[in-house]
Amino acid sequence: MAMKESQSQAHGKKSKYDPKKRKFQNKKSSADDNLSPANKKRALKHERQSHRKHASSVQPAKEVWNQLRVKTNDKETNIKLCAELHELLKGKCLEVAMQHDASRCVQGVLQYGNEQQRLEVVKELCGGDAKKDDDTKNQNVNLAELCKIQYAHFVVLKMIKYGGRDEECIKLIVKSLKKQMTKLAVHSVGARVVELLFGTFPPKSVASLKLELYGPQYALFASVNPSGKDNSPTLPSLTEFVENNPDKREPTLSHLQALLQKGLDKSLTGFGYFHSLLLDYASIASPEDIRSFLTPALAEHSLHLLSTRAGTKVVCECAAYGSVKDRKKMLKCLKGYTRSSLKHRDAYLAILRMCDVMDDTVLVNKMLLGELHQNPDDEKNEEDDEDKPSSILDLVLSDTGSKLFLLLLVPKEEMSSSDDGKSTPRWHKLLDPYEVSALHQNPTVTENGEEVPTSKKESETRRRELLVYLKELLVDVCTKHTEELMRSKSGSKVLIEVCESFASEELFQAIVDACADESEDEKTLPLFEDPVGHLTLKHLFLSETKKNQDDDDPSLARMFYSKFEGELGSIATSNRGAFVLSSLLQTCVKDEAKEALKSHKKEITNLAKGGKDGKKLAGCKVLLDALK
């Protein structure tokens, strides 16, 4: 008996401190007996929430926020609810922002509040109201901590998004995040804040924060130079800083390499600011550094970097200086994304670079170019092969996608003379300066004190081998969709190069037939008067004059003349048509064409001088000079 009493006493003492025993203590109340298990769980949840900090304000704030987020509210209702919500949270925003279920209430004030309410919340979170230096430091640390908390960082994102137009808000946020960027930039949650911060705030406002990412060497020794129209002070780029301070190159590289390694370990390759950091590192690193550190680390993350211009440039540098093994990893990573990459505003450069440096052209065809032979949009289409549109039509008409075909069609060693007398590779004229710099030729690395090229094959050999795989596709698209290509700026360039590389009677006949076709749409101009189409014909004739042709070789000018011999007079009466004929007079049929136009010379002269309406046609004047 004594033993049972001692056990019951021990059990009674334990029940006083065990919160689960409260269920048995309250068993007598009839109200709790009627509650369902779900309601009991909900009641327990409310009881736990009542013990949290600022529970008396948070609960009504959540109810107000539920009404505020309704999309059908009118403007006056939102103003009233937001004022009520702001009053409930005033002075408590910092603590409430860190609660997972109440953080959205602070976000609501930032999103729906007016400028004054938003500014007060920003001041409270950034420590703008603190008077003492110690308090300010604590507040600054707290804001940086908010950026690292899973739920609280959404409040900081709203601060940046809706406070980006208020200069005072910008200054407070930037000041509060100083000396914290190196930690936030490589934090899995804080990286989202850094990404939005650099993408939303003006570059001048966040320049001081970017300095921290380059290390103490740059922040201490970079000198401010006046630049711009107003001679406003600006800091030099990282490349200029290293050029002016060669002794600071190694410490800066070491700092960036350590920072980038932390980011790579946390898989931050999807953020734009991280791409910019990688490009900054690549701009000051030697080819050996890129080959040993950057390329092995990024080879399997190449696809993530293609979303930005900076990231694509990094992939191009890695492909240029990477080893054969790393290049194969990059190629495997890009497999299945050739078509989408070629249509992307930045990613197409990576495809061009891989085709430009990879020695294994068979693997390039299998991994990248093989995808171009099948258009995924036509898988459900059961039409005959002759009626199907070409699988590369969309790429040829694309400004970015067409550059792959141009790069493979134009020989690397072919030179072109410019107006100032200097000769440059002809493929340079088909690309812009940025693309030419990204596709710099013959990259080398230093091995045992000697410069060794990273690719063994000659660039011209690689080009010819890859062009074999695309020849049939290129001729097919130019034959089936001739008129569409002639009216397109991008497509016309490809058509001209295909005619120069793979000239054939079938292809020239398709061009002549496209010129003869009359569109049913009244708004569509004839090909001779089309802004792009007449230039395409002109360039096709001029390119033929540069060749040494035999009589047996197919000639576009000869086929064109035989088709339009009786219509040259009417073509010459239009301004653009006259320009086309002036180029025709420089080809092998110039004597026949001059004879056919002799009877129309008087009409061409009148149009060149102004005609009945007094409008002088420049094309007729050029044609008249060619007829002399």
Detailed description of the structure:
By secondary structure, the chain is mainly alpha-helical. 63% of the residues lie in helices and 3% in strands. It is built from 41 helices and 6 strands. The strands form 3 sheets. It has a two-stranded antiparallel ribbon. Strands 3-4 form a two-stranded antiparallel ribbon. It has a two-stranded antiparallel ribbon with strand order 5-6. A hairpin with a 2-residue loop joins strand 5 and strand 6 (450-453). Helix 22 (309-321) runs parallel beside helix 25.
Give the spatial strand order of the biggest sheet.
1-2
Structural class computed from helices and strand pairing: mainly alpha
- Percentage of helical residues? 55-70%
Oligomer: single chain
What is the beta-strand fraction? under 5%
**What's the end-to-end separation, in Å?**
135 Å
- Rg, please? 35 Å
Query: Which ranges are low-confidence, i.e. pLDDT below 50, for 5 or more consecutive residues?
Result: 6-18, 20-30, 130-141
- What's the story with the biggest beta sheet? 2 strands, antiparallel
Give the tally of β-strands.
6
The coarse silhouette is elongated
Mean pLDDT: 85
Count, helices: 41
Keywords:
41 helices, two-stranded antiparallel ribbon, 6 strands, single chain, 628 residues, mainly alpha
